[in-house]
Amino acid sequence: MSCEVKEKGRVGTINPIFTCQPAGAQFVSIGIKDCIGIVHGGQGCVMFVRLIFSQHYKESFELASSSLHEDGAVFGACGRVEEAVDVLLARYPHVKVIPIITTCSTEIIGDDVDGVIRKLKDELLAEKYPDREVHLIAMHTPSFVGSMISGYDVAVRDVVKHFAKRTTPSEKINLLTGWVNPGDVKELKHLLKEMDIQANVLFEIESFDSPVMPDGSAVSHGNTTIEDLIDTGNAQATFALNRYEGTKAAEYLEKKFKIPAVIGPTPIGIRNTDTFLQNLRKVTGKPIPESLSRERGVAIDALTDLTHMFLADKRVAIYGAADLVIGLAEFCLDLEMKPVLLLLGDDNSKYVDDARIKAIQENVDFDMEIITNADFWELENRIKNEGLELDLILGHSKGRFISIDYNIPMLRVGFPTYDRAGLYRYPTVGYGGAIWLAEQMANLLFADMEHKKNKEWLLNVW
Amino acid sequence: MPLHEFECSKVIPERKQHAVIKGKGETLADALPQGYLNTIPGSISERGCAYCGAKHVIGTPMKDVIHISHGPVGCTYDTWQTKRYISDNDNFQLKYTYATDVKEKHIVFGAEKLLKQNILEAFKAFPQIKRMTIYQTCATALIGDDINAIAAEVMEELPEVDIFVCNSPGFAGPSQSGGHHKINIAWINQKVGTVEPEITSDYVMNYVGEYNIQGDQEVMTDYFKRMGIQVLSTFTGNGSYDGLRAMHKAQLNVLECARSAEYIANELRVRYDIPRLDIDGFGFKPLADSLRKIGMFFGIEDRAKAIIDEEIARWQPELDWYKERLMGKKVCLWPGGSKLWHWAHCIEEEMGLRVVSVYTKFGHQGDMEKGIARVQEGTLAIDDPNELEGLEALEMLKPDIIFTGKRPGEVAKKVRVPYLNAHAYHNGPYKGFEGWVRFARDIYNAIYSPIHQLSGVDITKDDAPVWNTGFSTSRMLSDSVLSDEVRNSTTLRQYSGGFDSVTKLREREYPTFERKAS
Predict the structure, then answer these.
(1) Residues A28-54: what's their mean pLDDT?
(2) pLDDT band for position B25 (50/70/90)?
C-alpha cells in the first residue's frame, strides 16, 4: 500500500489540463469592479480566454488586447500598450483599474511594461485624464512559466500590492477565495455572515451569475471595489483558502502590514469546513453559532445516507487545480471512497512538500498515485493501456471524452465545466458544498448503474 | 460617402472608415469600408490571432493527424474543444491535442530538442497515426526554433511518418486571416504532389475551404458522390492528410470558403492548371446552381438535376413553412469572414428575413464588397467591430435575431436579442438542402421562443401583461398574424428530419457509374 508522488514521465503534453498564466490574471481582472484588463500580446491570448469564460459562465466578460502584430514583435510594442490604455479610458468612462497583463511574446521581446506605466502616469494620465482616478497595474505572467493557477496567484498579489494601505485597522478579515465559482463565494459569504464576520472578499464574483432584465441593462462583472482592495491593508487577518491561489498576496500583507496569514485549508468537505470555521473563531474570537452546527448536521445526515451504502470503496480519479484536487481527495477519503489517482496540472515544485499530500502518503491503505505536471494522457493511458479501473472521475469539462469513451461516470467540477448546465451556481465548499458534491456523485453512480444495468435494482428500496 | 460614425468610437476617428450604411443609388465604390487593417489596441475587438487562423480553423479539422503546437501550453489548450468540426473517424482530431510545453529554460536555451522528444512521444502514444502537423506559436517564432529542420530529421529517422510544418505565430497579421494564408501556402509548398492517388472516377475534384462544421462536408460530399464524382480531398474538414497530399491530381477545385482557402485554390490553378470553381452550399438556389455548375463542368448536368429535383421536392415545403413565419424579421448577420456574403442575399430571398447589418471580424475588403453588393439599402456594414459598437448597433437597429459567435451571443442575450451561432451553428449542419431547413428551423425557434416573450416583461409594473394561459407555444406567437390560407396549409410543413442528420450518410451506398473507355 503506497502513495507515490511523481512527475509525468514525458516532456510533452497530450491534452492539457491547464491553460497558461495570462488566463489566471484575466480571471482576476474580471473580478474587480470598474476594471478592464489589457493583455499585452497576440489577440488570441484574449479572444480564447474570453471564450472559455463565456463557455463556463454562459456570460461575456470585458477584456482588451494590445493586439500585437508583426511590427510590434520585431520593433517592440510598448506603444501598443500606450494606445490601448488611451483608447480604453476614452471609451469606457467608468473604468478605473487597468491591469496590463503580459504574455510569452511580450516577455520574450522584453517590453518594459513597468516603464510604460510610469510613462503613462507622467504623460497621458497627467495631461489627458488629470481628474480621473486610474490605476495601471503591471502583471507579469509569461506563458512559459507556471500555469493559469500561478498566473492567478501572481495577479492577486499584484492587485493587493498596488492597493493595500494601512489607514484604520479594523475587525474585518481578508478572504482570498482562490479560483472558485459564484456558488462558492455565496456559500463562503453565508458562513461568514453566520459567524458575524465582515470581510474584504477577493473576489466578489457572485455577480458573474447575472440576470436578463427587461430593460437589457444587466452585465456580468466582478464586484470587488477599489475600497475593498485598499482596505485589505487594515484587516486583522488574511484567510487564503487555496494555498496556490492567493498565498502570495497573503504573504505580502503579512510582511508589509504584519497582518497574520492563515493559509488553507481549501474548505471542501465537512472536516476542512470545520477547520476553516475554527480558524475564523481563533482569529476573530467569534463563536461558531448553533445555526452552523445545524447546517453541519443536515450535511452529515445527507452523507450518512450515502457513504457506506453507495460510496464506500469507489475508485476515483481527480484532476485539475491542486487545491481543488487535494480538497476533493480528502473529502472522498472521509466518504470511504478511494481516490486512486490525482493529477495536478502543472509543475509547481511545492506540491511534493504539501503537508496535505504528505498526510495522504502516510495514511492511505490502498495504492494511490499523485502525478504532477500531469496531462490527460496520464489518465487515459492508465485506463486504456495499464488496466486502471475507475468508478468515477472528478474534474473539468476538457476531460469529457475520457469519461465518454471509457464509459466512466464523471462529475464536472472545477473550471471550466461548459458541458453541463449551471454548475458555476453551486458550491463545492462549505457544508453546502459537501452536500452538493456527495449527492451529485451518488446520483451519477445511480444513473451509471441503470445505464449499465449493474445492480440497478438496488435502488428499488432505499 | 455613407460612412457611419459610432457615438462610442468618436474618440478613435479612424474607426469612421470601417463602417458604412449602404445609401440609395450608391455604388460599391461609395460604400466600401476599410478592411483587414491593424487592429486598434484596447478597442475590445473580436479578432483572434494568426496561430488560431492556421491551426484551429484550417489545420485541425484534418482528421487523421497528430496536431502539435510548439509553444507554451496555453495556445493548445485554448484552441481545443472550442469548435464543432467533426469527422467520420470518431472525431480523433477533436479529442486529442498536443503541446510541446515550452518552459522558461527552453526560451533561454532553445526548444528544438524538446520538440523532437515531443514528436517521438506523440507517435509512440498513438502508434496507429503516422501523420503529424506542427504549428509554430509566438514564443517559438521569437526564439527562432528551426521547426522544419527537426521535422526533416525525424522523417529521416522514421521513414513511415510524414510531418507538415506551419510557421504562423499569433502576431503574424491583423487577425486570424493571416494564418489562413500562411497555412494554405505552406501546405501546397510542402505537401501537394507527394502522394499519387488512385483515380476511381472519370470526374475528380477537390473540395476546398470546407471544415465539416457539424457535418457540412459530409452532406456536400454526399451530393458529389451521388453524382459519381470522386472527391480526392477536402481542404480540410473531415479531410485526410494523404488525400490532401494528392490534390494536384484533381480536374477541378470546388471552393467553398474563399476567405480562408482561395489561396491554395489559386496556387493549384497556377501550378497544376486546375480550374477553380466557387460554389455555395448554403441556400437552395445557390446550392442548386453550384451542383449544376459542377455538373456542367464535368458534362453530367443530368445527374446534378436529378439530385436537385429530388432534394427540392423533399425539402421546399418545409423551408417555405418557415419562410412564411420569418417574413420581414430583422437580422444582424455578424459572422467571422465569408458567411456575410454566403448568407446575406439567400436568407432574404429564401427565408424572407431582412438583413439590417453585416459585419466581418477578419474578412478583407473583397468580402465586404460581395456582402454589401448583396444587401439592401440602409444596411449597416462594419469591419472589425468592437464590443461597444456592437451594442450601439443593436440598440440602433433593434434586430429580431443575431447570427454571431458564442461570446458575442452572450452579449446579445443580455440585451434580449436571440442569437444563433454563426460559426459552429446551433443544431446544424446548415449546408445542403436539409441543412438549410435546419437553419430556418433554428431561426424560427430562436425568434419565437416563449422565453423570449417572457424576458421583456417587467413584473414590477402594474401594466405588466396578464397571462391567459399557463404557457405559450412558438406557434401561438408566430401564427397569430398569418392568413388562414398559410396557417392551415396542407402542403407546408415543419422540419421533419431527426436530431442527427449526418451519421446515417456514413453508411450510405452510392451508385456506380460506368467509366468512359480510356
Answers:
(1) 98
(2) confident
- The amino acid that residue B66 corresponds to is I
Interface probe, candidates A53, A68, A144, A412, chain B, greatest B C-beta count within 10 A: A144
Coil, strand or helix: which one is A57? helix
Contacts of B468 (CB under 8 A, 6+ apart): none
The model's pLDDT over A318-360, given as tens digits with 9 standing for 90+, comes to 999 999 999 999 999 999 999 999 999 999 999 999 999 999 9
Is B460 touching A (CB cutoff 8 A)?
no
The range of the structural domain enclosing residue B81 comes to 50-190
Q: Which CATH architecture has domain A3-14+291-458?
A: 3-Layer(aba) Sandwich (3.40)
Residue A152: the pLDDT is 98
- The CATH code that applies to domain A21-163 is 3.40.50.1980
* Mean pLDDT, residues B309-313: 98
Question: What is d(CA B292, CA B310) in angstroms, rounded to the nearest whole number?
Answer: 14
Work out the pLDDT band at B518, boundaries 50, 70, 90. Answer: low
Q: Which residue of B has its CA nearest to A17?
A: B77
Q: Number of CB pairs < 8 Å for A and B?
A: 247
For the record, the C-alpha cell of B70 comes out as: 510548439
d(CA A311, CA B291): 59
Residue pair A429/A265 in contact (Cβ under 8 Å)? The answer is no
Q: In this structure, what are the phi and psi dihedrals at residue B114, rounded to the nearest 5 degrees? A: -60, -40
Distance CA B446, CA B402 (A): 10
Domain boundaries, chain A: 3-14+291-458, 21-163, 173-289
Question: How far apart are alpha carbons A437 and A421 in whole angstroms?
Answer: 15
What predicted TM-score, i.e. pTM, was given to this entire model? 0.97
The CATH number covering residue B160 comes to: 3.40.50.1980
